[in-house]
Amino acid sequence: MRDVASIIGLRVISSQEGRDLGPVSQVVVDLAAGVVEGLIIGKGASEKGVEARDIDIVGVDAVMVTTHRVAKPLSELPVLLQKRRDPEAPPREVITDSGKRVGVVGAVFIDATGRRVTRYEISSGAWRDLIEGVQTVSPIPGTVDGNDSVVIPAAALGETELGGGLKSQIAKLGGIARTQAQQAAHSLEEGAEAAKRGVASVGEKASGAATKVKETIAERTHAHEEQKAEAQPAAEGEAAPEAEKHGEGIAEAMRKRLQLGVAAVSEKASEAAAKVKEVRIGKKEAAPEQEAETSEKAEEPAAEAKEEQAPEAVPAQESCCAEAKEQPCEEQPCGEKPAEELPCAEGAGEEDKPCCESEAQGDAQ
């Protein structure tokens, strides 16, 4: 599909002779029939026409024809002469058969190979075209393609399409945006599903890894306990002799301390016994002297009392001894017991007399 405006100005070249027949000044079309009638070459008196059936190729840079003979004067081509328009003339108006002006003829698009009109545009003005867009019309049966205007059926306006305006562009963009949003939503849903599957997979892997870690920890703990159990008897076996040696050392030290304590106590006991013995010996040596002094002191008042009160008392009663069977005579002076308890008194037994006699003799001395 090609805009006829892009053909204006192309050179027409004959392929057999290689001759330049001139530039294209006008493309003659029939909007009612929807066909391409031919080309106008040159301007003014030198204008010639080439019918559509003689056109070989409409290229990008040139229009190719077989020979220069196909380019004929317009007087020999009545259709082109009738349809020819002045290039300087304003665009033709498009009016409905009900008398409503629709706009003016704008761009015309053709199929260069098939030499057919595919569609043409109706412009309603620059501002309206900008806002609402340009109406695009395909060739409509019943259309009248005149030199000054194009008349189309009013009922055909419903078949026109608006395009190129802001509204249409916004609508198009809105449609594109909706489509993209739907695609994005679909992609998000797919991504969410994939993420859920990924999370589930990761969770399963994490759970499996945690289980393996637990099993590894349990195995290592069990192995450690077994190693500890195996090492404990050996450690106890090694520690027992050392503990026994240590205990024997402690017992030996205690025995030595006990022996030293016993020796110290024995030494102190010997010293105490020696001191007691010395004290006893001292007491025995001092006893006769004390008894003598005591007797002398006791005899003086006793003698005085005897002289005053009882001069006839038995001298044997002044010295008495303890019972002969229990104590020696020297350990109990006679003056400590009353006269009636003295063994030397009247009625004393024969066993007490030796003691009394000894006491009496001692006193006499």
Structure characteristics:
seven-stranded mixed sheet; single chain; rod-shaped; about 375 residues; eight-stranded mixed sheet; about 20% strand
How would you characterize this protein structure?
With 365 residues, this protein is an alpha+beta fold. It contains four helices and 15 strands. The longest helix is centred in the middle third of the chain and has 143 residues, at 166-308. The protein is rod-shaped and about 205 Å long. The model is unreliable at 309-337, 339-348 and 351-365 (pLDDT under 50).
Radius of gyration, CA atoms, in whole angstroms: 82 Å
How does the helix and strand content classify structurally?
Answer: alpha+beta
- Structure annotation, total helices: 4
Q: How much strand?
A: 15-25%
As residue ranges, the low-confidence spans are: 309-337, 339-348, 351-365
Amount of helix? 40-55%
Mean pLDDT metric: 76
Biggest beta sheet attributes: 8 strands, mixed
What is the straight-line distance between the termini? 187 Å
Describe the global form.
rod-shaped
Q: What is the string of SSEs from the N terminus onward?
A: EEEEEEEEHEEEHEEEEHH
Count all strands and give the number: 15
Q: What is this structure, in a nutshell?
A:
By secondary structure, the chain is of the alpha+beta class. The chain contains four helices and 15 strands.
